Amino acid sequence: MKRAHSVKDIEEFKINASVYEWCAKGVSWLEKHLGLNIKLHAAAEDMRRGQIFVFNHFARFETFIPPYLIYHHTGAYCRSVADHTLFEGNETFAEFLSDVGALPNNLPQLMPFLAAEVLRGRKVVVFPEGGMVKDRRVMDKSGGYNIYSPTAHERRKHHRGAAVIAQTLDTFKQRILSVHKRGETERLERWVRALGLESVDVLIERAREPTLIIPANITFYPLRGADNLLNKAAEMFFKNMSGNFSEELIIEGNILLKDTDMDIRFGSPIDAAMQWSWWERKLLNAMFRNIHTLEELFSLKDRAMSWDEKILARSMSSQVLNLRDEYMRSIYSMVTVNFSHLAARLVIELIGRDRMEIGKDEFNKALYLAIKNVQTIPSVNLHESLLNPEKYRGLLEGDCLGLERFLKTAKDAGLVGRTPKSYRFMGKLRSEYEIDEVRIENPIMVYANEIAPLSDVRAAVIDGLERAGTVQADVIASDLFEDELRGHAWSKARYLEPAYREINDKETATKSGEPYLLLPKTITGVGVVMVHGFLASPAELRPFAEKLTAAGHPVVGVRLAGHGTSPWDLRNREWREWLDSVRRGYRIMAAFSETIAIVGFSSGGALALRFASEEPPNLAGVAAISVPLRFKDRRMVFVPLVHGINKLTQWFSSYEGVMPFRNNDSEHPDINYKSIPLRGLHELRHMVDETERRLPAVTCPLLITQAADDPVVDPESSLIIHKNVGSKDNRLVMISSNRHGILADDIGNTRQTVMDFLKSLEWGEGEN
Fold first, then answer.
1. Once rounded to an integer, what is the mean pLDDT over residues 232-240?
2. Of 270, 568, 584, 617, which one has the fewest beta carbons inside 10 Å?
């Protein structure tokens, strides 16, 4: 490789437009076909205006991603700095790196050339950690920022190259503007020729742009230490692989090949403009008379001879360090905090208190409370695993995918053991590991180190741990209900994307699809879990719920999964998710009432019966209204066939299916979906069949109400329920009506009939 000795020589490292474009398309293809999910959190305007981008560094391959993203979103080429050893030995690979904008880190005049590239309209990508920080430990015990250097075998400060480039470039911009102001056209034209710009006007325009550094953070989740195909293949071809190489293949191979989120979060721009006092500015103007090039300005510190040059060099050096510290603080403050971060921090906190074993219930509750705590901290960026309740649902019961994944990783590393009722922490957690071992041997420490700069997160975990043993049931229930509200908002936002617009635009619902929790000032009646029907939302029964609350009943209005958001949401749900919605509502109500009744309308009534067949504790009775075991619409018998054809069509084509949705003519278009997903009807059939099968297990007091001429539900349904349930206290009330929504519209005094039933449960008249 040719060694460059000046900015002019370095220009031989020209970016190859065709290779750059090919590489960008390659990264795009890999993103679509590998397990890596790149999630960019950035303002388009900041990406456009930013000139120098600084990132943290955890994985070797990640250095290719930021330039691709910046190019994809702004169209600007990027320069990045790579280890010089990558340019040595293989000429073809060295040429490829040069073609895509990389420069070796030992290149003479590197920094002035990068500054010049910014003036040419390009971006610069820098990794100021100077290497991969595999242990994610970026702070010392006193709270200062530093990292471990594997080559020097000691901790050191972060590199300040990005700050030097930015502030020196900004100073040179001021020089350009001062020359322009004095009308020194010849000097400006000389700079234009040296930079290869189109005109003096372009140079002045670039000089007037603020020199902006964009700090950015890359966070991966989850980390996996299990073997993978890449490592196994490498072992076959390279019998004597180094531990370092094998470790990187395992960790980075799993990131690339398995479902892994790569959150890239861009922070607010930092203006690199130097802050000069009036006398320093006078010295600077005098010094400018002897500064003719970027190289001379960059070398000021080394060649400063006079007292004024030394003063300026010292001032610049001080401001460079301040700027470096500012963008490093910003980088580390933008960690995308995930489930495993909090779990790891909790483990480390317990070990610090010499608690090497903890009950599962206490640990799970502490972790749940920590999640709820961090959700209230606006300055902390949260991963989907902490934002979407579906991702941490079941944590309190120990039935949570995020928890299981964390524990499996910890168990595989020999860090955590399990007994039937507790978690045990192994002594290995207190051991120190080499930088090339820690990601495999102690991933818990890696996770904990990554959020160490976030003091609010640690405080949230400590608070969760300290409250876990004493928190009241109603507090947990309120948190669980907040999850229901959060889940509704999350699902609603998810289906606002353009791909779902055609069906969404047909929707006529105007009432809120949120669940509700209504608590009277004085509770005088049984608690009520209200379950709406298929295609509807909690709004369907809210007026009745408010009437019950006024009568002294606490009421939770359940939102069945997939409802109250978008028909697409319902299309992607299974009926057991609807049943889980009822279970969660029941758990919430259990904190406010010792006895509970379930009031379910239509398919909500079927779900109430199905849930009652499990004989949950403290269930006083069920009111099931217009339950659809048989349907008036005979086309329902063809739903399994159409669903099967839809699935077959999807296997052989990207087309959605022959009939993914059908129109719904609803009695309440302001509440119900206009479009019915055929898959949802298929799930409905499964659910009512399962409910009918389980009727003999329903033994609680039961009120069955049905309209005699219901246009949707065949009245035979109510007779089947009445005949087959196991309950001895089982009353059937037929209403003379040709409407389906007899509860929502209070036809035939249906509401009072239900209220009388609930009143009878208060006095224990129908208890088992």
1. 56
2. 617
pLDDT band of residue 42 (cuts 50, 70, 90) is: very high
With both helix axes pointing from N to C terminus, report the angle between 639-652 and 678-694 in degrees, rounded to the nearest 10: 130
What mean pLDDT do residues 374-384 have?
A: 98
Share of the chain above pLDDT 90, in %: 68
636 is written with which tokens?
């329902």
Strands 357-359, 270-271: parallel, antiparallel or unpaired by DSSP?
unpaired
pTM as predicted: 0.90
CATH number listed for the domain at residues 474-762: 3.40.50.1820
Exposure string for 462-488, b = 16+ CB within 10 A, e = fewer: bebbebbeebeeeebbbbbbebbebbb
Average pLDDT on 54-62 reads: 90
Report the distance separating Cα 621 and Cα 764, nearest Å. 10
Rounded to whole angstroms, how far apart are CA atoms 130 and 55? 10
In DSSP terms, 54 is beta-bridged to 126, 215
Contact 103, 63 (CB under 8 A): no
CA distance 552 to 758: 11
338 pLDDT higher than 70:
yes
Given a cut of 80, whether residue 323 has pLDDT beyond it is yes
User: Among the listed ranges 39-43, 91-95, 125-129, 735-739, which one has the minimum average pLDDT value?
Assistant: 91-95
Give Cα separations from 737 to 68, 522, 604, 707 (angstroms).
65, 36, 20, 5
Cβ atoms 217, 335 nearer than 8 A = yes
Q: Which of 697, 696, 736 is nearest to 715 (CA)?
A: 736
Domain locations in the chain as residue ranges: 7-331, 339-471, 474-762
156 forms bridges with which residues in the sheet?
147
Neighbours of 377 (CB within 10 A): 15
